Amino acid sequence: MSTIKAILEADADGTLHLPLPTDLRQGKIDVTATLKPVGGTKPGPQPHFGCLAGKIQLAPDFDEPLEDFREYTQ
User: Fold this and answer.
1) Could you give the CA distance from residue 54 to residue 57 in angstroms, rounded to a whole number?
2) Is the overall model pTM greater than 0.70, yes or no?
3) What's the chain's Rg over C-alpha atoms?
4) 3 state DSSP class of 73
5) Centroid of chain to Cα 16
6) How many angstroms separate the Cα of 36 from the Cα of each of 9, 21, 32?
7) How much is the pLDDT for 54?
């Protein structure tokens, strides 16, 4: 019995092709698969501290009291 662990990329038609060792290329084989995603296909840049600086703007009335809590704050 051999164990193969591989991360495969599906072809356009949705099929996967598993490379087999030479000794398993003849005859029938029993395959058990666990399918789970392994992240994105193209890793993008990793976010870092301060990467959104200047891109987020607060509303001008951000610090104003909320109308819903008026009775609790008076």
Assistant:
1) 7
2) no
3) 27
4) helix
5) 20
6) 12, 23, 13
7) 82
What is the C-alpha to C-alpha distance for residues 46 and 56, in angstroms, rounded to an integer?
Answer: 19
Concatenating the DSSP letter of every residue in 9-71 gives ---TTS-------GGGSSS-----------S-SS--PPP-TTTTTTT----TTTTSPPGGGHH
Q: Which two tokens stand for residue 74?
A: 């008076």
Tell me the three state secondary structure of residue 74: coil
Q: What is the pLDDT of residues 10-69, one digit of tens each?
A: 888 888 888 888 888 888 888 888 888 777 656 677 778 887 888 888 889 888 888 888
Among 30, 37, 29, 32, residue whose Cα is nearest residue 8: 37
Nearest to 5 by CA among 40, 31, 39: 31
